[in-house]
Amino acid sequence: MRHTGTIILWALVSALVILVITLPINLQTQLIASIAVVTFMAVIKVLRAEGIWRLIALAFGTAVVLRYVYWRTTSTLPPLNQLENFIPGFLLYLAEMYSVMMLALSLFVVAMPLPPRKSRAAGGGPLPSVDVFVPSYNEDTALLANTLAAAKAMDYPADKLTIWLLDDGGTEQKRNAAAVIEAQTATARHRELQALCRDLDVNYLTRARNEHAKAGNMNNGMQHSTGELIAVFDADHAPARDFLRETVGYFADDPKLFLVQTPHFFLNPDPLERNLRTFETMPSENEMFYGIIQRGLDKWNAAFFCGSAALLSRRALNEAGGFSGLSITEDCETALALHSRGWNSVYVDKPLIAGLQPATFASFIGQRSRWAQGMMQILRFRFPLFKRGLSLPQRLCYMSSMLFWLFPFPRTIFLFAPLFYLFFDLEIFTASGGEFLGYTLAYMLVNLMMQNYLYGSFRWPWISELYEYVQSVHLLPAVVSVMLNPTKPTFKVTAKDESIKVSRLSEISRPFFVIFGILFIAFLMSIYRFYSEPYKADVTFVVGGWNLLNLIIAGCALGVVSERSERASSRRVTVKRRCTFIIGEREYPSTLENVSANGARVQVFGLEPDIAVGENCFLRFMPYGSEQEETLPVDVRNVENLGSVVAVGCRFMPQAARHHSLVADLIFANSNQWSDFQVSRRYNPGLFRGSLWFLGIAVYQTSRGLLYLVRSMRGGRKGEAA
Amino acid sequence: MSVRAKAALVGLAVSLAASVAFAQEGATPFDMSGERGPTVEKTPEQSGGGATVKDVKVPEKKAVATDLGTRRYIIPAKSLLLEGETAGHSFPVFLTPQQAGGATSISLGYSNAVVVAPESSRLTVVVNDVMVGEMPVQSAEGTKDIRFDLPPGLLRPGVNRVSFNAIHRHRTDCTIRSTYDLWTALDPARTYLTVPADTSGRLLTTDDIAAIGLGPTGQTKFVMVVPEMGQPASTNALMRLSQGLALMAKMPNQTFAVAEALPATAAAGELTVLVGTAGDLAPLLPALPATARTSAVATFVDAPAGDRKVFVVSGPDWPSIEGAVEGMVSPIDRPLGVTREALSVRQRNASEMPLLTGATTRTLASFGARTSEFSGRRFRTGFDLGIPSDFYADAYGEATLLLDAAYSPEVLPGSHVDIYVNGNIASTVPITNRNGGIFRHLPIRVTMRHFRPGPNRIDIEAVLMTQADRVCAPGASALEEPRFALFDTSEFRTPRFARIGQLPNLSALSGTGFPYNGQVDPIALYLDRLDTATLSTGATFLGKLAVSSGRALQIRPEASALAIGERNAILIGTISQLPPLVLGQTHIAAESASSWGAQVAGEGRKEATRETFDSWQSRVREGSWNGQISALETWLQDTLDISISSLRLLPGDEAPIEPPDTARFFIAQGDSPERTATWTVLSAPTGTDLEGGMTAVAQDPRWQQLDGYVSLDSRNTEALDTRAVSRTRFVATQPWTFANMRLVAANWLSSNILAYAAVFCVLSILLGIATSGLLRRFGRES
User: What is the number of domains present in chain B?
Assistant: First the structure.
């Protein structure tokens, strides 16, 4: 072994650390050591020391966490002969140990993530032929038109690029369905999409039966195509022009490469972002995954396929028998299969596609349930820790990704653990106030600091907890059911094109209000007990504080399930692009301000602001990679006089297939605009400011949630009366 | 109401029955001589069925020496207080076969607090687990004497156990505070077994030395008559003999007085021992056996004057006397390499103390504690255990008490069970249930911080509050309904703890004789002069050491302190005679050789100035910046038990001690010059102070206080002034094992707090660097 010396040295230091950590020192010593470590970490964090200091800070954190684990294991469990305390106490212990294990795995994954790869414009040398698969099930034509047009517009030699619309909504099975409406819809869709594809000059493919869902659909696509590489885009994921230029080159570098994955960038907010109004200011939830974790996985050659926005090798897929369809997350399963066969993956940290994510809370939960259940299925059927062919780091990486989805269990336990004491007077965690200070508080502080250190600018304080909580309520039953019956879940396509016209409570919001109510009663109970039982005020204080934290998160979640109405059905993307506004015969120099899938806002110079709404006009501009300007028909929706210029809101009126390509060019062609948008949201507010900010949001969202509840009850009563 | 009336009736019947017994006792003449207590006039008690107790008018000093021999005193202390709502003490009394056969009654003199309610408070006397007497506690006006007959055959030759148990209830008050006002005082001088004058407690054989007994103030004294004490040859025999006698008697407060002349009398608890060659002793003792001129003798003979026996150790020359001494010592000695299961220190409850040397779990029953139910407010019971001298877990160690107990529904939340170790609170368990409850092996963590080598006392105290006590209706304090029960199935569990010898360590010296107890080579003994005071001090000290060690130590007298070199040694002498080297090694300031004991007027003034300064400092504390820091320190100390001085990276050096003028005697310990052996120094300004100081320190309560590297005894205060060790020398006492060294490290780091933080941080940094190296070499290159 080349690195035996390093390993031995590391093992030696680790053994020493473990030895020191497991010394049964007294509380005072622990307290001083905790203070020293927390101070040290704070200094490193404030100085923003990177490089080796990053790992030193993590080592500090790890040591404190391990010390907590040692103490928690040896001195805090209730005695075995008090079963009423021991059983919940042990569950809480398991939940904590799960959290620690996940921390360890994620530390392993992200201890030293690969820096973003340099942008490369593939050129020179022969380019491989590429098939682009756009699997679709029930998405509407306009959405598909944009995606297909954007795919068609990718910067790649036309003779080597074949676009396939893989339509599973128009299969023979569907068209011949017994239900007449379903059959009619499928037939109409079949016809309509065939026409669209013809217009866009892409291939339409459907199959006989809807077997094996998305994986089956793509395997069918593979049988009908021959390209060396296969790019996969979800129906709503439109690629930028440079997608292939940025990704194809890696396959030439490494013949054993099976995957180049790129991040998913979303144009619209998820329900949490929409309802909390954080989309413009706070990094999205998935940025932590694509910004850090995939880079960390990439370090260990374990970046996995996320179902879309990826380029795969046909040779590799053929070897594994195509896309795997055993679980309902075929993407990760396929990657696991290929990794275990010795194939490699690469992650390119640059958003090269833009897509949509579920708009309503219910469909958001539906999507997460699929992921959680799918990961549980893989865990069950292909247990990665013992999967032959994987390297040890890959095993750990996959375990980290799968086990993450068990979070509903500990989250639920953490939620209810304080209630055992507050309502039933059970002591499930035996520790004194001083020990709590020296061990638990230090552990929690260090944990928060480590999280902030690792993910600070991608994930603000308490947001992870909020996301986990809002998912846990409905994910817990889903995960339990897949554990009991691993083959039962079936692939359900997530709806992403819904919009909310009226502010309302989500249809699955009730449990959140019930939980909030219980926690609030517990909160009152803690105040009462604090004053009525002064001899255990310290315990009540600690447990009450814990419950209060849960209450704050649960209150914030009330806001998440109170759906705000959204005006724009499609999100606007800011662009700065010269164009010409043509009205009748007259042409005006103008600038595109922003665009959406449906329309654009244009600043027109020299236009009289008296044009009529609904008037037909044209936008002329130079598409990327084109030599000549082209025109796109629009009609005027509104006009606003800004003094020197007139801002015109207009709706696209695509008449030919080429017009779809022009719209796609406006929105999707330039991938840099997405990176810029992401970077604008990425900054670290710090633990203290972040926590204060969260508290403010939580208080406001609690009141908004309760207001929606009152409104809905009134509405309900009115409905009954009617 | 009817219930209470019934109880009163039962009580009446009991006291009537008792009165019959007392009336019979009245027939035997009451011994009333030699009492030293205050003269108290007693009036006949009008309770129950008439006069039951013979009232005694204590006469002024009218000591008749011969009669004193007929009393076997029981309490080895100047006074004995039974405090609180429930209290008990047991004492061992060693009797010769003649005494055991002849003793007929037990007498006690007691007084009690005025607030003790006689109708609900009882004092019981138990001998060898048989209750021999019970009576209401009703002697608030002065000491009252009572005598109980002993059933024939109850007393046994050898060790007998006499227990006094009191149950007190307050007359009017039901608060927890009030329970501290309850006490019964037993007068040791008036508490004894009566042995008929004819068998008199005379000691006849060597085995009977154990029955030396106590004086009226709890003293035991061996008077060693050594006409040739100035001869160096006599020292070894004398010191070995002292240890042998000490081991035989094992009395808590035993001292030795070396004298040249034979005293005329011997008081109770005194034994005269003559040591010398036949030629030297013949003039003093006509009854010296003739065989002493030819061979070694160790026997009791009649004293020339008075009706008593003296013990003689003699022979034709000193080597033969030494042979006689060894003949006495060897049967009771513990060979090297034999470890003790228990400490034979019986001063507290007359049973041997189990010695806990590692991971053990023992029930309370095996410690001698009993299941008990309790109806009062503050319940207290306890047990004793022994800790080895190389105990090194005071900073981190935690023992566990697995408590089996129950409390009734009337006990209110806010009540608590407290655990005390050697009088220091070690743990508190709050009672939080409203409806009564049962603790089944409830683990209570007990810090081992207050444990010390040798005997240790663990007390369990339950403080019980009830609504009835808050109301405190008349008579409520005496309700009989039990509120609390402690079961003897409770277990005391000590984990495996760190064991390594630490020197200097006077508490280990007093507890188990460490580091002298297990050594193969003889201990160097330096006596600055061979006179009465120095030899008495040496004999007393070695006697105490032998009992603590559980074996007689080999010694080798040295004429010069400088010749000792790297050997464990004991050095005894007045301060001015000790070489500066010795003082330096034991951290005694060299100036004290000339200044200690010489009254200097300035000293007192300096002291006064310091006191004034201190008082001003505490007065102007608030406000100043300095005050803020000391307020922080106080807060840290109070809430987290961290003092600024404990925040240290490495231990500092011991400060040289200049004994203050209030001190009269000290025991100091230090390393030999090369730091391989231990020297213990006993010194005082004068020979009188030396002997007087050692006698004071030999009293068990004070002996148990020995601690640190210097312990100073002063005339006026009970407590020893001890100075804690800061730089410890570690000596391996156990085979080197990783597990033990880990625990030793834990304790060292727990006492050097910053060192742990530093080690923790340095190792974390190393781990970070090592991990970074590892990550750079594995996985994809950055």
Answer: 5
Phi, psi of A545 (to 5 degrees): -65, -40
Per the residue annotation, which of A242, A331, A349, A497 is the catalytic one? Answer: A331
Residue B188 and residue B241 in contact, taking contact as beta carbons nearer than 8 Å: no
Note down the domain range covering B287. 218-332
Q: Is the pLDDT of residue B307 over 90?
A: no
Contact B749 A25 (CB under 8 A): yes
CB contact under 8 A, B746 and A299: no
A20/B759 Cβ within 8 A: yes
Label residue B624 by pLDDT band (50, 70, 90). low
> At A658, which CATH number?
2.40.10.220
Least-confidence region, from A306-320, A597-611, B105-119:
A597-611
CA-nearest residue of chain B to A438?
A: B640
Give the model confidence (pLDDT) of B649-662 as tens digits.
677 777 888 888 88
pLDDT higher than 80, residue B753: yes
Same domain? A432 vs A546:
yes
Check CB contact under 8 Å for A37 and B769.
no
Whole-Å CA distances, B388 to A626, B318, B734: 93, 37, 12
Task: Name the residue facing A7 among B754, B767, B774 (closest C-beta).
Answer: B774
Output A334-338 pairs: Cβ under 8 A, ≥24 positions apart: A334/A215, A334/A305, A335/A258, A335/A259, A335/A304, A335/A305, A336/A304, A336/A378, A336/A382, A336/A384, A336/A387, A336/A390, A336/A398, A337/A382, A338/A258, A338/A259
Statement to judge: residues B282 and B240 lie in one domain? yes
* pLDDT over 90 (residue B197): no
Q: How confident is the model at residue A124 (pLDDT cuts 50, 70, 90)?
A: low
Mean pLDDT of B268-277: 90
Task: Please tell me the distance in Å from B449's CA to the nearest CA on chain A.
Answer: 10
Choose from A1, A7, A8, A10 for mutation: most chain B CBs within 10 A: A10
- Of A513, A545, A563, which residue sits at a domain end? A563
The rounded distance, in Å, linking the Cα atoms of A373 and A327 is 8
Alpha-carbon separation of residue A238 from A229, A245, A323, A597, A668 (angstroms)? 18, 15, 22, 11, 7
* Of residues B443, B642, B765, nearest to A28 (C-beta): B642
Tell me: do B53 and B108 sit in the same domain: yes
Same domain, A70 and A149: no
Residues A463 and A498 in one domain: yes
* Cβ-based contacts of A9 with chain B (< 8 Å): 770, 773
A131, A168, A298, A349: the catalytic one is A168
Three-state DSSP at A40 gives helix
The CATH number covering residue B13 comes to: 2.60.120.260
Give chain A positions within 8 Å (CB) of B756.
20, 23, 25, 29, 32-33
Q: Which of A671, A690, A705 is the last residue of a domain?
A: A671
Q: Categorize the per-residue pLDDT at B15 as very low, low, confident or very high, splitting at 50, 70 and 90.
A: very low
Which of B764, B774, B777, B782 to mutate against chain A (most A CBs within 10 Å)?
B764
Q: Residue B667: what pLDDT? A: 95
> Is B202 within a domain?
no
Chain A residue with minimum CA distance to B757: A33
Q: In terms of domains, do A221 and A344 share one?
A: yes
**Which domain covers residue A639, as residue numbers?**
573-671
Q: Looking at residues A473-502, what average pLDDT do you find?
A: 84
Q: What's the pLDDT at B236?
A: 92
A159 is catalytic: no
Is there a single domain that holds both residue A443 and residue A344? Answer: no
- At B201 the pLDDT is 52
The answer on pLDDT for B642 being more than 90 is no
- Is A248 within 8 Å of A127 (Cβ atoms)? yes
Are residue A28 and residue A72 in the same domain, yes or no?
A: yes
> Above pLDDT 70, what percent of chain A?
97
Q: Do B763 and A63 touch (CB under 8 A)?
A: yes
Question: Is it the case that residue B602 has pLDDT exceeding 80?
Answer: no
Answer yes or no: do A29 and B749 touch at CB < 8 A. Answer: yes
Return the residue of A nearest to B775 by Cα. A112
For residue A708, being part of any structural domain is answered with no
| pLDDT value of position B718 | 81
CA distance B40 to B140: 11
Is A331 assigned a catalytic role? yes
| Cβ(B260)–Cβ(B254) below 8 Å | no
